[in-house]
Design a protein that fits this description.
The chain is 50% helix and 14% strand. It is α/β, with parallel strands linked by helices. The protein folds into 3 domains: 238 residues, 3-Layer(aba) Sandwich (Rossmann fold); 122 residues, SecA, preprotein cross-linking domain (Pre-protein croslinking domain of SecA), CATH 3.90.1440; 151 residues, Rossmann fold. α4 crosses α8 and α23 runs parallel beside α25. The longest helix has 42 residues. The structure holds adenosine-5'-diphosphate. The site of adenosine-5'-diphosphate (ADP) has 14 residues, from α6. The site of adenosine-5'-diphosphate has 14 residues, from α6.
C-alpha cells in the first residue's frame, strides 16, 4: 500500500514537527536580529542559502512566512511541506492552507536556481498565489514570476527565468509545444524542466492527464467533405444505416449505410484506403448526429461550437474536438466552419509532467487514487491530518426510483433548509443539470456557476458560506477557493452540501463534500441519487435494492478505469518516445552553427514530416483502418504500423531536406516564414477513441457480470 498515513500519523511525524518547531524558535530569535539590516545580510536568507536539509529549510521558510505574510504555519502544514519536498502527493483537505504549506517545498526545489514551476488550475490562481506568496520568496532572495494567457513570448521567457514560476499546466505545455517548433534558439521561452509542484494534483495528473495539448497551423481542406457528408447522414436511420451499441457509445456503419455512402459520393468500396477521407467524414457526421447532444455535450454560442466537459460539467471554450469531428458538428448545426488547421505538435499533460526530474503535488482528494499516482508517476500519496478535527456530518445517500422524484425532493429540501438561513451548495454533474435545477428553483435567489469566469466565480464561491446563500455549482467551478462561514452560520449547522449525483470516481464526490467542514467548521453533506442516474444505468442497476451499491460500483469502475489507462498508456508511450527522439534531433540542429539556410530547411522538414506523421497516427488510432480488419489484435496492429511509419519518417528526413534545400536555393524562398499557429486542447474524445470504446464496452460487460451475476 503506497499510502503513507501511518507515517504521518505516527511518532516520527510528531518527532519531526517537534524538531522543526524547535528550530523555528531558534531561527526566529536569530532572524529578529537581522530584521532591520540590509537584505543581503539577512541571517534567514543566509541560513536558507546554506541549508542542505529539507527539515531545516521548512523551519526557515516557516519563520519567514510568519514575518512576511503574517501566518504561523500549523504543524500539519509543516508535514505537508515535508511530503512535498520528498516528491509525494500530499492529501490536504480544502481550507487547510495548501497555498502556504507548499512554500517551503517550492523554496527547497528552487534553491539551486534551475527553476520550479508551481502548477495552478487557472490563470487567476497563478496570479493570486504568485503575488500572495511572493513576499516569502523574495525575502529568501528568490525571484518569482507568473504566466498569464495574454502574455507575449518575451514576458513568458522572463517569467520562466525566475527561480519560481506560477502557471497553469496548460500554459506551460503550450509554451513547450511552441518551443518545439522554434526556428531560432533565442525564440524558445523555457529552460530545461527541473521541478514541478502541482496544485490540485488529482485534476491535472488524473482527470486531465490524457487530454492532448495541441499546437496547430496551416490549412486543411476536409471542410468540404464534412459539409457534403452532413446531408447524407441526416437521412440515415439508426438500426438501418448504422448501429449504436448498447451503451450508446459506439457507432458502426451497416452494409446499407456503407452502400448509401458509396453511391452518394460516387466512389467504389468505402473501406478502401483511397476513400479514407470520405469514410472519416461519414463516420464523424454520424458521431455528431447520433452521439453528441446540443446543450449537453456542446453549446452553440456566438455562432460557434463550445464543447462541454462532461467530467466537470463545465463549458470548455478553448477546447475542440479532433478536427474532423468538430467540423462535423459545425455542419450539423449549420454554423460557419472555424479553421482547424493541421496538428503540428502535441503532448498530453501526463507526458509533460513526466519531463520533470522532480515533481510533487497536493490536493484535497488523492487517497482513493493512490494506485494511479504510484503507477503513472511513481509518486506516493501522503495523507496529512486536518489541523482541527473534521466534524462535518456525511449522511447516507437518499435514493429515488426516477430522476424526477429526486429533483423534486431536492427542490423541497433546498426550500426547507433555506428557510432556516443555512447556506447550501448544490453540486451538479453538468451545465445542463445546473440550468434545469436553476429554472425550477423559483422564488429562491441563487447563483449558478459553471467555471466560465474564474475570477468572478472565485468571488461568488467565497461567499457561498454566508447566511441564506444558495449556490449551484458544477464540479470544477471555483475550485481552489475555500468557503468560509458567515456570521452565525456555524450555529445553523454550517454549509450544507447537496450532491445531485454520484460520480464514477469517489474522489470527485469527496471533493464536493470537502467544500464543507473546513478547519473544524460544522457542516453537512448528502448525495441524492436515482436509479436513472448515469452511473446506475450504465451498470445495469435497475433495482432499488442495489442502491447501497453505489460505492461498490464506484470502486469497480475506478479499478477498470485504471486498467484502461494502463492499456492506453502503452499506446501513448510509444509515440512519446518517438516525439522525444525527433525533438532531440531537432534541438541538436537548432544548437548547431551550420549555415543559416540549411538549418532552417532541416528544421522545417522535420516539423512538416512530423506533422504528417501525427495525422496518420491519429487516423490509425481513430480505429478507421482497423474496422476492416477484424480478427487482429488492435494494439499489436497499431504498434507494428506505428513502428513502420516512424522508420519511414526517420529515413525521409535527410533526402527530403536535401531536396527542399535545392528547391529553396533555386527559388529564393525564405524558409523562416511560417504561417500563424494557434493552440487548443483536444476535448476528451467523447467516450474515448475507437480502441478505448471497445475496451470500455468489454470491461463494462464484465463489470455487470461481476456485480449482478
Ligand atoms: P486550500 O488551498 O488548502 O483550500 P488556501 O491555501 O486557500 O486553502 O487557504 C485557506 C485559508 O486559510 C486562506 O485564507 C489562508 O489565508 C488561511 N491560512 C492558511 N494557513 C494559515 C495559517 N497557518 N494561519 C492562518 N491562516 C491560514
Amino acid at each position: 500500500m503506497s499510502l503513507l498515513r501511518s507515517w504521518f500519523g505516527g511518532p516520527s511525524a510528531a518527532a519531526e514537527t517537534a524538531h522543526i518547531n524547535r528550530r523555528r524558535a531558534e531561527l526566529a530569535k536569530a532572524g529578529a536580529l537581522g530584521s532591520n539590516v540590509v537584505a543581503s545580510s539577512n541571517p534567514l536568507r543566509e541560513a536558507f542559502r546554506n541549508s542542505k536539509d529539507l527539515a531545516e529549510t521548512v523551519a526557515i521558510v516557516a519563520v519567514v512566512a510568519a514575518r512576511t505574510v503574517g501566518m504561523e504555519m500549523f504543524d500539519v502544514q509543516l508535514q505537508g511541506a515535508l511530503a512535498l519536498g520528498r516528491g509525494r502527493v500530499a492529501e490536504m483537505q480544502t481550507g487547510e492552507g495548501k497555498t502556504l504549506a507548499c512554500t517551503p517545498a517550492v523554496a527547497w526545489y528552487a534553491r539551486e536556481g534551475r527553476g520550479v514551476h508551481v502548477m495552478t488550475v487557472n490563470d487567476y490562481l497563478a496570479r493570486r498565489d504568485a503575488k500572495w506568496m511572493g513576499a516569502i520568496y523574495e525575502s529568501l532572495g528568490l525571484t518569482v514570476g507568473c504566466i498569464q494567457q495574454t502574455m507575449s513570448a518575451d514576458e513568458r521567457r522572463h517569467a520562466y527565468a525566475c527561480d519560481i514560476t506560477y502557471a497553469t499546466a496548460n500554459e506551460i505545455g503550450f509554451d513547450f509545444l511552441r518551443d518545439q517548433l522554434a526556428l531560432r534558439l533565442e525564440d524558445q521561452v523555457h529552460r530545461p524542466f527541473q521541478a514541478a509542484v502541482i496544485d490540485e494534483a488529482d485534476s491535472i495528473l488524473i482527470d486531465e492527464a490524457r487530454i492532448p495539448l495541441v499546437l496547430a497551423g496551416g490549412e486543411e481542406d476536409e471542410e468540404a467533405l464534412a459539409r457534403r457528408a452532413d446531408p447524407l447522414v441526416r437521412r440515415f436511420r439508426r438500426g438501418l444505416d448504422f448501429t449504436l451499441d448498447e451503451y450508446g457509445r459506439n457507432i458502426a456503419l451497416t452494409d446499407a449505410g456503407a452502400h448509401a455512402a458509396e453511391s452518394y459520393f460516387r466512389i467504389g468500396n468505402l473501406y478502401a484506403e483511397r476513400n479514407l477521407a470520405a469514410y472519416t467524414a461519414v463516420h464523424n457526421a454520424i458521431h455528431a448526429h447520433a452521439l453528441l447532444r446540443r446543450d449537453v455535450d456542446y453549446v452553440v454560442k456566438d455562432r460557434a461550437i463550445e464543447s462541454v466537459d462532461q467530467f466537470k460539467g463545465r463549458i470548455a471554450p478553448d477546447r475542440r474536438w479532433p478536427a474532423g469531428l468538430h467540423t462535423a458538428i459545425e455542419a450539423k448545426e449549420g454554423l460557419p466552419f472555424r479553421k482547424q488547421g493541421r496538428v503540428l505538435a502535441s503532448i498530453t499533460l501526463q507526458n509533460l509532467v513526466a519531463l520533470y526530474p522532480q515533481a510533487c503535488g497536493m490536493t484535497g482528494t488523492a487517497a482513493t487514487q493512490a494506485d494511479q499516482f504510484r503507477r503513472f508517476y511513481g509518486m506516493d500519496v501522503a495523507v496529512i491530518p486536518t489541523n482541527r478535527p473534521l466534524i462535518r456530518v456525511d449522511e447516507a445517500d437518499a435514493v429515488f426510483p426516477t430522476k424526477r422524484d429526486k429533483e423534486e425532493t431536492v427542490i423541497e429540501e433546498i426550500g426547507a433548509v433555506h428557510a432556516t438561513g443555512q447556506p447550501i451548495l448544490v453540486g451538479t454533474a453538468s451545465v445542463e443539470e445546473s440550468e434545469r435545477l436553476s429554472a425550477r428553483l423559483t422564488g429562491i435567489p441563487h447563483a449558478v456557476l459553471n467555471a466560465r469566469n474564474e475570477e468572478e466565480e472565485a468571488g461568488i464561491v467565497a461567499r457561498a458560506g454566508e447566511r441564506g446563500v444558495v449556490t449551484i455549482s458544477t464540479n470544477m467551478a471555483g475550485r481552489g477557493v475555500d468557503i468560509r462561514l458567515g456570521e452565525g452560520v456555524a450555529d445553523l449547522g454550517g454549509l450544507y452540501v447537496i450532491g445531485m449525483n454520484r460520480h464514477e470516481s469517489r474522489r470527485i464526490d469527496h471533493q464536493l463534500r470537502g467544500r464543507s467542514g473546513r478547519q473544524g467548521d460544522p457542516g453537512r453533506s448528502r448525495f441524492f441519487v436515482s436509479m436513472e442516474d448515469q452511473l446506475m444505468v450504465q451498470y445495469g442497476v435497475d433495482h432499488p435494492e442495489h442502491r447501497h451499491d453505489a460505492e461498490s460500483i464506484q470502486r469497480l469502475v475506478e479499478g477498470q478505469n485504471l486498467e484502461i489507462r494502463l492499456f492506453l498508456n502503452k499506446y501513448e508511450s510509444v509515440m512519446e518516445g518517438q516525439r522525444q527522439r525527433i525533438q532531440e534531433r531537432r534541438q541538436a540542429i537548432l544548437r548547431s552553427d551550420g549555415p543559416e539556410l540549411e538549418r532552417l530547411v532541416a528544421l522545417r522538414t522535420i516539423d512538416d514530416l512530423w506533422s504528417v506523421y501525427l495525422e496518420t497516427v491519429t487516423e490509425l488510432r481513430a480505429g478507421i483502418h482497423w474496422q476492416g480488419y477484424t480478427g487482429h489484435d488492435p494494439l499489436y496492429a497499431y504498434l507494428t504500423k506505428v513502428d513502420v511509419l516512424y522508420r519511414e519518417l526517420d529515413e525521409q528526413i535527410e533526402p527530403e531536406t536535401a531536396a527542399r534545400l535545392e528547391a529553396a536555393r533555386a527559388s529564393g524562398i525564405d524558409p523562416s516564414q511560417r504561417g500563424a499557429t494557434w493552440t487548443y486542447l483536444t476535448t476528451d474524445m467523447p467516450f474515448g477513441d475507437y480502441t478505448e470504446r471497445v475496451i470500455r464496452g468489454l470491461t463494462r460487460k464484465v463489470a455487470k457480470r461481476q456485480l449482478w451475476g
